[in-house]
Design goal:
It is built from four helices and seven strands, in the order H-H-E-E-E-E-E-H-E-H-E. Strands 1-4-5-6-7 form a five-stranded mixed sheet. Strands 2-3 form a two-stranded antiparallel sheet.
């Protein structure tokens, strides 16, 4: 989720965290009250920062989660996903996308546009 959309979608972020806790994830970090904030990565050549929506551990492996909701800035979202996917592959971690009803088609189109069709979104 792009920073602009974060304030509007706090409830879905909480719902996603509850789902992850229920499926065995631990050490959850999220940009939400009561949770530690995940590490941000500074984009070279500009002042923008990339922060995963949720970072969690399961079976000793780190997972990056990004929430996919319809956005006014799809280019920013695509570049964020490409960066997180590359970062996770580089460090043998995992990258997953979480979406919800009404946003499936948007998510699938975005994944197809950036050639990440091997990713299957987690549908909550």
């Amino acid at each position: 989720m792009v920073k602009v959309d974060k304030s509007e979608n706090q409830a879905f972020l909480e719902k996603s965290i509850n789902h992850l806790e229920a499926t065995g994830f631990e050490g959850i970090k999220a940009d939400l009250e009561g949770y530690e904030t995940p590490k941000s990565y500074l984009r070279k050549g500009s002042d923008s920062r990339i922060t995963p929506d949720i970072v969690a551990l399961k079976n000793g492996r780190k997972y990056f989660f990004d929430i996919s909701l319809k956005s006014e800035k799809p280019r920013l979202l695509k570049s964020k996903w490409l960066f997180l996917d590359a970062l996770s592959r580089m460090n043998s971690n995992r990258f997953r996308i979480i979406t919800t009803k009404g946003h499936y088609k948007f998510t699938d189109m975005m994944l197809e546009d950036i050639n990440l069709t091997n990713k299957t979104p987690i549908k909550i």
